Structures
1.
Amino acid sequence: MATDAPPPSKEERPLPSAEEFSEVQQSAEFAELRRSFRSFAFPLTIAFVAWYLLYVLLSNYAGGFMGTKLFGNINVAFVFGIAQFVTTFLIAWWYSRHAAAKLDPKAEAIKTRMEGGA
Amino acid sequence: MSPAQTVFAAELAANEASEHRPLIITLFSVFVVATLVITVWAGRQTKDAADFYAGGRSFSAFQNGLAVSGDYMSAASFLGIAGAIALFGYDGFLYSIGFLVAWLVALLLVAEPLRNSGRYTMGDVLAYRMRQRPVRTAAGTSTIVVSIFYLLAQMAGAGVLVSLLLGITSDAGKILIVALVGVLMIVYVTIGGMKGTTWVQMVKAVLLIGGTILITFLVLLKFDFNISDLLGKAADNSGAGAAFLEPGLQYGASGTTKLDFISLGIALVLGTAGLPHILIRFYTVPNAKAARKSVNWAIGIIGAFYLMTIALGFGAAALIGKDEIVASNPSGNTAAPLLALHVGGVDSAWGAILLATISAVAFATILAVVAGLTLASSSSFAHDIYANVIRKGQATEKEEMKAARWATVFIGIVSIALGALARDLNVAGLVALAFAVAASANLPTILYSLFWKRFTTQGALWSIYGGLIVAVGLVLFSPVVSGDPTAMFPDVDFAWFPLKNPGIISIPFGFLMGWLGTVLSKEEPDKAKYAELEVRSLTGTGAH
């Protein structure tokens, strides 16, 4: 059972010094990590919030359009709602793929070096 | 159905329930005993502060994903959303969508950096590069306020269930049940700590998902798995016709209500990533990668659950009908348990068993969420306020844990008292208020702290207190509290703020104050500390 595993937090490693942190923060390698995180996460956040707000606003001010029946009793509003679910699942999957491919290796490299040197 | 018949039907449901009271009580007792055993077992393994606050950081991503889902799918989700959809059709569905999309903010911006740079509480991250004492005091205050709003909603849900199930309509009876919930939650948290609470959440999540799948299946079976037929029948029986399936039934009445809809929508999507009881869950896994995976699990589980609220809500509208739902509870909070009775057959033993099962699941849901909320607020009190402000970081781990346990008892008593007051309020709406407060006070400060290097102590204080005061203040003067038949105090009217949800004003205000406080502050931001926070939050260097 997972709870029987030794907690990794118990042995307190000394933190690297303030100088080391500043040095790493200024390094090109860290700048690259920050860039690949921010240039992915920030625009994507703006995009899904905008997509969600579009849905909220259409619900409010475009009732006729949202009420248009597509097939049977399924209307545009219903499809729009389900689409929000689908995009949420897709974005979560997409971000995780990006993080595993582009962020984790860079983060891991910096962490290993800093903790090894501490 | 005529009004007389409707009242009769509601009474029938209540009688049906009370006839099977022993079954309901048995099922509920089984859950309580099982969770108490887990709690005692977890308590024996809780030795140091990392165990108590963070479950030893040894849960797997899947376990935590399940526990996060358990913490998140509260009485509001289960009882509130089903009721909102059953009464207002499509407008109720906004809750499901907003509650889910909100997880992307947590996934993309908050979960991993928080796990990497914090230790036990939200305050750890907020105060990281700031002056500790004022910022921790602020973080602790907003944690406790948000949690109490959320607790109120759960307690109100407990009261509603009790009157339906046990036929207890007297105030004394309801208060007794609220007190029982309070005592159980004190036991869970003081003895089991985060480890026990996490296991309780997992058990509850499995029960809730299982129960929801069962009811969804039975509803769909009645319509040969044709969603269009289900929606059509719901529209027919709602009394609203096709409008039931379109936006606007609840919020489309006027410009003000439309604004309220936007306000609610914003609060839902931005609130999750500022909820302290959700944030501390990310400390229970070994590292940021596991935190990310647990959010992904949670998105999958919660998403599936909210998709099923379509069947619950529209199913209730189709199979029970609006009149009976309203007769049972004016806010629709009992639609889900009533639906269980109807899909099983109103006069059959099967229907009664389903009603009992679903009600026990709803009770379990409330109990578990209440425990999670209490843990979040007592952790923040002990770690942020007691250890770092009152004792200035000089308290030992033992003293800190003792403070946390006492805080739990205290918060338990406070929430019993408040719960007794809030027992008749609308459940989903109350939770939306907690979301609005979290999005106004906590989210701006978290995002600025992590991503804006100029952010200062004054900025942090202004955004926490500014967001908090405006959000709570607007609620106080809103139709939720007075001047409306469904208000807390319906007989007085001091509601000059027309919206029921303050988000549209208070959330931008929180962000604005954080910015203003920073550009107006005389102190320089601590560059070295920001370097440390930024490197740690992105790489996990030195993570606890």
Note: Residues 1-11 of chain A have pLDDT under 50 and may be disordered.
2.
Amino acid sequence: MSFLELQNITKIYPNGTKAVNETSLNIENGEFIVFVGPSGCGKSTLLRMIAGLEDITNGEISLDGNIINKIDPSERDVAMVFQNYALYPHMSVFNNMAYGLKNRGISKEEINNKVNDVAKLLEIDQLLTRKPSMLSGGQRQRVAMGRAIVRNPKIFLFDEPLSNLDAKLRNQMRLEIKRLQRQMGVTSIFVTHDQTEAMTLGDRIVVINNGVVEQVGTPKEIYSKPNTKFVAEFIGSPQMNLFNCKIENGIAHIADRKINLNNSTNIDDASLGIRPDDILISDNGQHTCVANLVEYLGSDMIIYSKIGDQEFSCKLSSKINLNAGDTFKFDISTTLVHLFDNTTGLRV
Amino acid sequence: MKFKPLEILTHIILILGVLLMVLPIWFSFATSTHDNVSIMTEGMKFFLGESFTYNYNEVLNEKGGWSEEVTAARMFVNSFIMALGIATLKVVISAMSAYALVYFRFKLAVPIFWLIFITLLVPLEVRIFPSYKIVSDLGLTNTYTGLILPLVASATATFFFRQFYKTIPDELLESAKLDGANSWRFFIDFLLPLSKTMLAAMFIFMFVYGYSQYLWPLIMTTDEKYWTVVMGMKIIFTENYEGVALPRTGERFAYIILSMLPPVLVVVILQRWFIKGLIQTEK
């Protein structure tokens, strides 16, 4: 039995909206799981159900062997870091961190020790007497983390905790969260809509769309073998190119081009996907296209072009000299191609 | 620095306004320090006189009323108890009922709120006879409970607390829940400290409201021991002096000045707290 088990979880709001539909998931002790998906996909709802902040319409959640559906959030032994931190504005940093411990009836001395230890770990020990209004965004973030850590819960839940920080601080905190999680080995669930966060943080990633789990897997699995067309489009930047095509006997027809896939599939309505950096540009490539637009990004550049009326992009080193309006030649390797059936959205 | 004509004009208007507010109080105070003969012969005074100690001593300690047993000091105590009771209970009850209305999602919360709100249209003066009937049936006439109880519910305060609670982000409640706070703890540890500015403001308003009640104590009390300051103003130092005696204007002015002190003190003391709360932006 897994540490945290979700079985056929469904959430229907009183107004009839189905936020989460028949979701099952097993999470092992010590794992770092990331829920990723577009906004409104139900990832936060799922997290809040684990925390006990939302009722579960159907299904069962068990934590460490106990079913926790009906258990009060305060008894579940989970800690959550909120998007806007939800620090207690009228309490000092020390009291913010100590509050949960006080409610558990822990002795003053022990509270002092614990809070001071965690404050040192997070380098906020200088701020303990301050009020949250006197802290910067990054410091608030640390206090919110500290408040969760100090309770030593069974699970950490992070609800988009980095989205209020500026880009530089976000990267820094991301690394720090990862480091702390490794160090303490506490099972963590991190909700985000940012795929970079998802890819870098997660031991495993859960891609959610429209209240349904699209794929569960390691970042590598998700990136290199997306199960559905949605995952293929959602993960990876720039986005994967998807060409609508008809496949006859292993040959994909995209507009007037033919790409031999070296197999014998037949699909009337398919999508052929290839990542922008998997398009191999070479002087003796099979296909020729015109670069409509070139985006220079420093070390890389992105070329936008068209096959028939379908746009695509390729990412290549900016050392290659190519300008808008130039023609370029490229190959598509069959091993790097992803095929999806458009009627089901599933990988073929 | 030179003032523009408009600025001079606005300042004149403002100064006139201040004088209009302050002068009557000053006249009352100055007059209260003169003896009755000079007031009778010379009218209201602008400068201080010499009877300050005598007048104020008389006011506080002379036994008056028909029974000649009640002193003004006693009335001050009564008024203070009544105003304190009303203000405290009003604030506590409204804060708690607003808490119930905002945080406990029961079915009729909105209709109940509007019902409470509608009672603003029915002040005590409108329902004074039914109120009296109930209080007297309960045997509470001539008691502090009877003075305070019918006035302890406040739709205004409930409304303000409700609006304030609604601005508190849900995450705070959720975070507190995960930290193991039950509903009672959330109220005590979060809502009350967060709304202390509001509590102070409401307390000030409600204290002044309770202190200035006239009609209710007048109807409620037959025993002079329960008279309040505002009632006393009408009655005290007017009786017992038929015929040749001089009207005791000096004492009466002293009484008026004294009667203004408790509300002023409450405002002055709580205002500090109130303003401190406004300066510290805690959100």
Note: Residues 72-103 of chain B form the longest helix (32 residues).
3.
Amino acid sequence: MQQAETKRVVPGHIRAEKRRQPSRFSIQSVNLLLGVLLPVILLAVWQIAGMMGKLNPTLLPTPGVIVQEFVSLAASGELLRHLGVSTWRAVLGFLLGGGLGLAAGLWVGFSYKTERLIDPSLQMLRTLPHLAVAPLFILWFGFDETSKILLIAKGAFFPLYVNTFLGIRSVDGKLFDVARVLQFSRWQMISKLVLPASLPNIFLGMRLSIGVAWLGLVVAEMMGSSSGIGFLINDARYFSITSVVFVGIIVFALVGKLTDSLVKLLERRLLRWQDSYKGGDAS
Amino acid sequence: MAAEMLVVQELNKTFATPTGDVIALNRIGLQVKQGEFITIIGPSGCGKSTLLKIVAGLDTRYEGTVLLNGKPIDGPSIEKGFIFQEPRLFPWLTVEKNIAANLSLRKPEVRKRVDELIELVRLKGFEQSYPRELSGGMAQRVAIARALLRSPDILLLDEPFGALDAFTRSHMQEVLLDIWQKNRTTMLFVTHDLDEAVFLGERVVIMNPRPGHIRHILPINLPYPRKRSGNAFQELRHRVLSEFEKVEGPDIDEGAGI
């Protein structure tokens, strides 16, 4: 009886590995190829059309020109300097806004009274667009770093707040009974039940927050700034150097994707226990 | 044997519903000795799970006396181990960490007991598996080990094998008897399976609904391990069943009869 049961239930990680091993490399490379297929075709068409003179170079410079611009900006150190400033702003804004969002989400999540008290106000503030509040921030805090970081923080606050709150409230009530029967202390209820159970939502909030932090950064830097990738884009637009605009956009995309991948990596490590649907045709 | 460890006297429980009060338990009286194995059987709605939740301290709104070791029950605690119908494991913890739960595996005495229990519930080799990798029977064994680690005075089981297939269920019953014979933990086992009740219990408490009450308490004087096919077993099984045939519409599971 025991044997039959164990045979049926080989631990998942062993089983998965066995199945995957022989073709692991090829499946990964196929996936990668699928991912780049579309952009490559698009770039090729774009480049050829540009070289045939079908595109206005001021509006749409060819990929080759953009790459050249990228290399020269990188070589002069200018790109790195702007990127450094932007990153610093985004990280600071994210830490401030995200940290407060997490704290507020925990606080409101744990207390029904707090929810009634502050959630309605926060939900009202949540819908305010960056562009609408940016002038106020500038009036209050001036053109220097404070207003920019606060604008980024405002954006980063809400996704973490909403998702942390949601995560806590969706903890399985049946597990609370278990925790009561096992005599968890109040602190253990939080650290050993609520937090681990809401971690998937907190991670989702974190990824969204980081994304919004980058969006806020662009708005902040375009409103008035003398450094940063947003400034680089805005300045280039002013002088119609479209290739630099493209370089700025590409940098934003790359850094955004990179940070998202980092969080995803962390998520995969910490949420290994999850048994969720990964798409019907995933191997 | 030892004195009464659980005493239930004149226990009444009423649920308030929009259509008026419903009596869930009516004048329940039950005394359980230290180390005894009691099974409670009855159709759904007879209040057997409600009785168990009251003993567990998960439900404290009742009238009457419920004493565990002479003290009234005022809330859930680790002295009263509870096994739910579903395993209710923490999905983010491995098997051994689920058993330890709020206790630290870094403590040598916890580590040692967890290893012993994994052996006892026959889960060796699965210490590092996550709940999603386990079958229903294995997950329920983890839940049993988790309760046993706290050395409960009494183990309360609420239809713990109800969701398992017949083969796994009879295997689990043997595992549980094995644990009981080794640890002598007092067991209060709720089921709706006739076979299970007679196979496991030293006494079978037969409950009937509307309002939930104890109809009869039948001692099963058969030595363990019991043979389901034996004449004496079948006769006792019929006697339990006959207690239900007197009421209309008994939705009692006659058991797989293996």
Note: Chain B touches chain A at residues 56, 58, 75-78, 80-82, 84, 86, 88, 90-93, 101-102, 122, 125-126, 128-135, 137-138, 146-147, 150, 167-168, 170-171 (CB under 8 Å).
